[in-house]
Amino acid sequence: MTNPAPAAPADAPRTQRPREQPVIEVMRPKTTTSPSATPTAADEARVAVRIRGLNAWYGDFQALQEIDLDILHARVTALIGPSGCGKSTFLRWLNRMNDLVPTARATGTVDLHGRDLLSRAMDVVELRQHVGMVFQKPNPFPKSIYDNIAFGPRLHRRIPRRELDALVERSLRQAALWDEVKDRLKRSALGLSGGQQQRLCIARALAVEPELILMDEPCSALDPKSTARIEELIRELRQTYTIVIVTHNMQQAARVSDVTAFFCEGRLVESGLTDTIFTQPAHEETENYISGRFG
Fold it and tell me: What domains, with CATH codes, occur in the chain?
């Protein structure tokens, strides 16, 4: 089987030992509609984002060290690792959010379908039309539900009202929110529950028809019921969208992702199929984190 992601850094241990017992039981919901997590022969040509030699700093502190990773099209890639290991920094460079941090800088390449996202020539506003972001805490605009969804399309292009109405409905349906809000589209989005607000933020990201959706711990502030709805939504969206999710919840990573990448101290220790990473990790560092020995 071909590993869909690049090998671990040269300084990481490479000894792989057979194990009789899995490190953690991977529980996946039964489904017949989601694509297989197993890469096909065409997957190499379906790489959505190719990251090579990514280094990142905050002032003199180096947060990421020589990250090489391929993110596959129409797959969910989970980023796991202890707090402060560089997961969110990595995610934020994929849509240039760190441009807002005066001391932040990065080198290397982040190639999205032939466009280097780190290039100084990249129009950041255009970039964010192609790369959507969903944050840890729901952040709806202090506008109506309708205007939250319509904001991005209005910003990027002129669109007739009838088409805009259809786009708002489609985005809310994709986010499994339409039936709950269709009769109050003109009401403030701030009146929604936390779980509804997070699905609204996902719908807002979908409205600009992105190529890539980034999620930074999207369920950490939600109750179990809302978390289950978001996880179900992620599994549905991966049929169409490429998704990268940061999570500290090991079972969540096992449930929703196809590929898992383990970060530690700014390094990408290893990446591969989620089933493999959680049952037969190649590195002791990964096994120790997944089994709860540190992190």
Answer: 46-139+212-290 (3.40.50.300)
